[in-house]
């Protein structure tokens, strides 16, 4: 067994596989990313700064960050609760519910947007009722959060669930024998063990939410300074031939996304 | 009596884990629940801890009815096979957990934690995390954690099962010493009879969810109450009644004692209760041939074949083996010193000891 590692390192087929894999990653991932960065930077920092701080762009960026944060705060609770139910309880139809969690990954986001419009839109029964209460959802910021909640639902669940399933029940039992109440056990034993996975799920869903386009374009209404998110702004600027504006905001999105992903994984690593 | 269990039963689906078990454990003793896997020993321990709900029966802890008491209110300490330390807490925080939950003042918690870390010799590791410790160290921390809130009884579920042999031996001796100092009534689950014998005052032998026998280790070994106990405690040779009837004085005269060689009964002889000699000496026994001689340090194991081709194992000292000049293929005489006979007909499982 020990010799195989050395063999793998030297064999020609191994080298070939390694290099073609790296080449593929380069072409598919690094090259386009690098392209955006280089183009944006070559426009000059002052130009970029001007484009980002333009009130329309700035509002779009803030809206994207804000709706993503609200979504993450909600998802952390619903996702952890769902993972808890799936990991801890047996009930009929559990397999179906478990499969259902991944549905947002499978449904095209544009279809997600369409579903939400059909369900909550101004012409639907539910939409009329909500408008009657003065809280319309579609073409409002709350609609964006709703779309993001749907699209990002699986992240926290799928990150927490395996950790919860692998948790040794003896740790919780040990706490109980020492007199800890169920809430105490959750707060002091279970939650600290889950925390890294919750943060990593939150980080993933946050970066995914920042760039969400398909579902948001359907439900947001695309009103500048109101419901136009950063990805919609980028799309609009490209359509309007303002490549620099699009690149500048893209750069901000990219940075925020990558930072949140890296921060979450670093943090989880440190805790785990 | 600190732990009293009455008519305890528990069923998992079709599996009867505990079957009408009753026993009582006097205060200050260290008692083993000994049995093979699936004998219900862990389930009994978990039921006493309140981690498992029995179908019927009652549990009393230190004179207090505890059957329906939640785990939290039973005042027990529990040590798990796989340690179950809180992985995100340091050694110190682990040991302090129970005291903090029970809202002891901070200074008192600190004092007690230090005292226990000293007791388990882990003072230098107070700020380590469980993952940075060896298995033996983890189990010592788990013990300190269980003892910290001064439990009324200590329950240990195969505490050394996940450790390697050498560490296990050390911890056994250490646990016994710890118990002699703390005197907390302890119930100890194990499948290892040597462990039970080394550590415990009393042993409860379990099989198929039922108690086979309760008693001090030596008594169980010398006077087993059932074929199961005989077979489970130490090595044993099983003889067929025909083999016993075929026993003769090695001067070929008939046997002076009549053994009840009932068909279907079980007859046992321990490997060290067989004596090998080179020459006939007029005592009842069999001629035999050495199939294989294995020296094991100071002991030697001799595999013999009796005339009716029954294989028996004999344990003698290596010195004795050399003295007799034993070797493979040699013809010798073997005589049982002590036979344990169980008659199938008698429902009351009693062994008849035949000391020859």
Key phrases:
heterodimer; A: 272 residues; mainly alpha; MetI-like fold; 14 helices; B: 356 residues; alpha+beta; Rossmann fold; OB fold (Dihydrolipoamide Acetyltransferase, E2P); 2 domains; six-stranded mixed beta sheet; six-stranded antiparallel beta sheet; 10 helices; 20 strands; 33% strand; elongated
Question: How would you characterize this protein structure?
Answer:
The complex is a heterodimer of chains A (about 270) and B (about 350). Chain A is built from 14 helices and no strands. By secondary structure, chain A is mostly helical. Chain A folds into 2 domains: about 1-40, no CATH class; about 45-270, MetI-like fold (Orthogonal Bundle). The longest helix of chain A is centred in the N-terminal third of the chain and has 34 residues, at about 55-90. With about 350 residues, chain B is an alpha+beta fold. In chain B, helix 2 packs parallel to helix 4 (about 135-145) and helix 3 crosses helix 4. At the A-B interface, helix 10 and helix 11 of A face strand 6, helix 2 and helix 4 of B.
In short:
Chain A is mostly helical. Chain A has 14 helices and no strands. In chain A, helix 3 (45-53) packs across helix 14, helix 7 crosses helix 9 and helix 10 (169-177) runs antiparallel to helix 11 (182-210).
Q: How do the strands and helices of this protein lay out in sequence?
A:
The complex is a heterodimer of chains A (272) and B (356).
Chain A: H1 2-10, H2 12-42, H3 45-53, H4 55-88, H5 94-101, H6 103-106, H7 109-120, H8 125-132, H9 141-166, H10 169-177, H11 182-210, H12 214-219, H13 230-239, H14 243-271
Helix pairs in contact in A: 2-14, 3-14, 4-9, 4-11, 4-13, 7-9, 9-11, 10-11, 11-14, 13-14
Chain B: E1 3-12, E2 15-25, E3 30-34, H1 41-49, E4 56-61, E5 64-65, E6 76-79, H2 91-101, H3 106-119, H4 135-147, E7 153-157, H5 165-182, E8 185-190, H6 193-199, E9 202-207, E10 210-215, H7 217-222, H8 227-232, E11 237-239, H9 241-245, E12 248-249, E13 266-269, E14 274-277, E15 284-296, E16 299-305, E17 311-317, H10 318-324, E18 331-336, E19 338-342, E20 352-355
Parallel strand pairs in B: 3-8, 3-9, 6-7, 7-8
Antiparallel strand pairs in B: 1-2, 1-4, 4-5, 9-10, 11-13, 12-15, 13-19, 14-18, 15-16, 15-18, 16-17, 19-20
């Amino acid at each position: 067994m020990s010799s195989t590692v050395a063999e793998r390192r030297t064999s020609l087929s191994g080298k070939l596989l390694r290099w073609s894999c790296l080449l593929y990653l380069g072409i598919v991932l690094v090259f386009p990313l690098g392209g955006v960065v280089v183009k944006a930077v070559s426009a000059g920092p002052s130009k970029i700064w001007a484009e980002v701080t333009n009130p329309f762009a700035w509002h779009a960026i803030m809206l994207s960050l804000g709706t993503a944060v609200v979504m993450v705060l909600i998802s952390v609770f619903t996702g952890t609760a769902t993972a808890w139910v799936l990991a801890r309880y047996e009930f009929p139809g559990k397999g179906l519910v478990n499969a259902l969690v991944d549905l947002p990954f499978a449904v095209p986001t544009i279809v997600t947007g369409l579903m939400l419009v059909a369900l909550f839109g101004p012409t639907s029964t539910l939409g009329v009722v909500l408008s009657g209460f003065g809280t319309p959802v579609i073409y409002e910021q709350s609609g964006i959060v709703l779309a993001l909640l749907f699209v990002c639902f699986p992240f926290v669940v799928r990150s927490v669930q395996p950790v919860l399933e692998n948790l040794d029940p003896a740790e919780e039992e040990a706490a109980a024998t020492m007199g800890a109440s169920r809430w105490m056990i959750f707060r002091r034993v279970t939650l600290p063990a889950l925390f890294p996975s919750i943060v990593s799920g939150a980080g993933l869903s946050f970066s995914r939410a920042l760039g969400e386009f398909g579902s948001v374009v359907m439900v947001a209404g695309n009103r500048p300074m109101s419901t136009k998110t950063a990805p919609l702004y980028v799309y609009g600027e490209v359509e309007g031939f303002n490549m620099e504006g699009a690149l500048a905001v893209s750069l901000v999105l990219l940075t925020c996304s990558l930072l949140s992903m890296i921060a979450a994984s670093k943090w989880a690593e440190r805790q785990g | 009596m600190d732990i009293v269990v009455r008519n305890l039963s528990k069923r998992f689906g079709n599996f009867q884990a505990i079957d009408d078990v009753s026993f009582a454990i006097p205060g200050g003793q260290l008692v083993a629940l000994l049995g093979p896997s699936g004998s219900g020993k862990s389930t009994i321990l978990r039921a006493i801890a309140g981690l498992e709900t029995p179908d019927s029966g009652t549990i009393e802890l230190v004179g207090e009815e505890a059957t329906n008491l939640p785990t939290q209110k039973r005042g027990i300490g529990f040590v798990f096979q796989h340690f179950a330390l809180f992985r995100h807490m340091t050694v110190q925080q682990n040991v302090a957990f129970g005291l903090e939950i029970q809202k002891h003042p901070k200074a008192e918690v600190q004092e007690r934690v230090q005292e226990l870390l000293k007791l388990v010799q882990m003072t230098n590791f107070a700020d380590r995390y469980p993952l940075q410790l060896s298995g033996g160290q983890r189990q010592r921390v788990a013990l300190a954690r269980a003892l910290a809130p001064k439990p009324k009884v200590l329950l240990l579920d195969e505490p050394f099962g996940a450790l390697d042999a050498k560490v296990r031996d050390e911890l056994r001796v250490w646990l016994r010493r710890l118990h002699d100092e703390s005197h907390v009534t302890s119930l100890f689950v194990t499948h290892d009879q040597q462990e039970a014998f080394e550590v415990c005052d009393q042993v409860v032998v379990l099989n198929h969810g039922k108690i086979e026998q309760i008693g001090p280790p030596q008594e169980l070994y010398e006077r087993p109450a059932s074929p199961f106990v005989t077979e489970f405690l130490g090595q044993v040779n099983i003889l067929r009644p025909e083999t016993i009837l075929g026993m003769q004085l090695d001067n070929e005269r008939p046997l002076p004692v009549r053994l009840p060689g009932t068909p279907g009964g079980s007859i046992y002889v321990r490997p060290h209760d067989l004596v090998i000699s080179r020459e006939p000496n007029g005592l009842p026994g069999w001629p035999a041939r050495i199939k294989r001689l294995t020296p094991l340090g100071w002991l030697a194991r001799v595999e013999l074949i009796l005339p009716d081709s029954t294989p028996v194992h004999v344990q003698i000292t290596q010195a004795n083996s050399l003295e007799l000049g034993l070797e493979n293929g040699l013809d010798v005489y073997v005589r049982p010193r002590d036979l344990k006979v169980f008659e199938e007909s008698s429902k009351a499982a009693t062994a008849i000891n035949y000391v020859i």
